[in-house]
Amino acid sequence: MPFRSMKNFTARAAFAGALALSAQAPSAAMAQGTLRIGMTASDIPLTTGQADNGGEGMRFMGYTVYDGLINWDLSSATKPSDLVPGLAESWAVDAADKTKWTFKLRPGVTFHDGSDFTADAVVWNLDKLLKNDSPQYDPRQSAQGRTRIPAVASYRVVDPLTVEIVTKAPDATLPYQIAWVMMSSPAQWEKLGRSWDAFAKTPSGTGPWKLTLFAPRERAEMVPFKAYWDKARVPKLDKLVLVPLPEANARVAALRSGQVDWIEAPAPDAVASLKGAGFTIVTNTYPHNWTWHLSRVEGSPWNDVRVRKAANLAIDREGLKELLGGLAVPATGFFPPGHQWFGHPTFKVTYDPAAAKKLLAEAGYGPNKPLKTKIAISASGSGQMQPLPMNEFVQQNLAEVGIQVDYEVVEWNTLINIWRAGAKADISRGVTGINYSYFIQDPFTGFIRHLQSNFAPPNGTNWGYYSDPAMDKLFDQVRNTFDKAEQTAVLEKVHEKFVDDALFIMITHDVNPRAMSPKVKGFVQAQNWFQDFSNVTIATAGR
């Protein structure tokens, strides 16, 4: 589908969604205590435990209805998030055998259906992702979760409140991996005839929110789980409503008209007028980047480091920031400026079109022989910021130095499927890169999963089939370094190699803008892809 027509299609679809929402919108009186959120996703994320739709799916349907053994601390806006106990009160690696981890579970936790959370439930949930011949194995959830936990070799029940997980090799990043695994209720699945389709309509987790309405492509509704184990996080709202609104202007229109109280990623050119109308704009730095992930298969133009560096030097990141109304941090590396893992790379990611042209000429390209390639992008999606105008801007920058880019524009979940399938797969449609926003909170999700040689699909999400023994050696050092300060020194070397070898087109970092009604109170925007809605309230006096 041509770039322009996809934009028009998306706008029409979003406008239709907004009209449907208008028809269903509750009255102001009914809305007290109800928070209605306009998501960037085009559908309700998968409700069975392992949410789809990327990080936004986990934000709204993962860490709401569900918990992991390990959760993220989402309580502070002023310090980076770190891991905290969730359904496991503690975890530790065996000092004598660093492949063995023991997880001590929290006693007295129940699922929404009233059944007990135990070690058997943990093993059951790992089997639903990893054991293809288990009765509860779910291909849809496995597609979301299996690649998140590549270190796991085996697991077993030690006692009702203790689980042992064994890794394939020593791996200090296991806790970060385990934080992605959400715990669904085995009893509810049995009660519903062992059907994940039935479970999707009436799911049961241990999280602070309980799903009460599931209408695909339209809305989802949740109410507080009053028996939630963490009493400080029992929600204060009466109801949380999620509405898919993939087009930015449609989200803004829904907020202005009072159809929703909160929107993700408002259109940048609407921010000033929203502020002037009394709406609140909330931003914060968080571990995110907006990149082009490059194919390194045979024949890809990106196999030449001169071409990769030229593309990085061709992008006017300050101009892009201006396009976004200031709602971005220009990239100077894969991680944001000042990050503790940034290190001291020698290649400077900056705007230098003359240097870009020189590098392209050295690589054999010029005015009479432009580099032509195709990149897959989405029309919207979790963390994708404003992908259509942003990619138009990048396209123009690259054309000015002699790189001609065509776009394959797809829906966000389709782009995720392309990312999982890999650059060699038919679904990738011959593209040489994908525009993908990345959660870079920890060593595994930030670095290892993207470029480790043996994580090429179907074993992981090394989409471009990058392979470098020197990088693999650094990743091995990360996994075998259990001291945090020593691990940081290794991670600096990793980031230096990411930048010096120009392994991605590094474009910008998001500040996670949200626009909301002044009636929304108590929200703390954590420095994380995920957020906590438990302390949010709706003021009784409207605008």
Could you explain the architecture of this structure?
The chain is of the alpha+beta class. It has 18 helices and 21 strands. The strands form five sheets. A seven-stranded mixed β-sheet has the order 8-9-10-1-11-19-12. Strands 14-18-13-17-15-16 form a six-stranded mixed β-sheet.
List keywords for this structure.
21 strands; disordered N terminus; seven-stranded mixed sheet; alpha+beta; single chain; globular; six-stranded mixed sheet; 543 residues
Blueprint of the fold:
Elements: H1 3-24, H2 28-31, E1 34-39, H3 54-62, E2 70-72, E3 83-85, E4 88-93, E5 100-105, H4 119-130, H5 139-145, E6 152-159, E7 162-167, H6 174-178, H7 186-191, H8 196-201, E8 209-215, E9 219-224, E10 239-244, H9 248-256, E11 262-264, H10 271-276, E12 280-282, E13 288-294, H11 305-313, H12 317-323, E14 329-330, H13 353-362, E15 371-378, H14 387-401, E16 403-410, H15 412-421, E17 433-439, H16 443-451, H17 469-479, H18 484-500, E18 504-509, E19 514-516, E20 520-521, E21 537-538
**Which residue ranges are poorly predicted, with pLDDT under 50 across at least 5 consecutive positions?**
1-31
Q: Provide the gyration radius in Å.
A: 23 Å
Please summarize the sheet with the most strands.
7 strands, mixed
The number of distinct helices, counting runs of at least 4 residues, comes to 18
Strand content: 15-25%
| Strand line-up of the largest beta sheet | 8-9-10-1-11-19-12
| Shape category | globular
The helical percent reads: 25-40%
Structural class by sheet pairing and helices: alpha+beta
Report, as a whole number of angstroms, the end-to-end distance: 42 Å
Query: Mean pLDDT across all residues, rounded?
Result: 92
Number of strands: 21
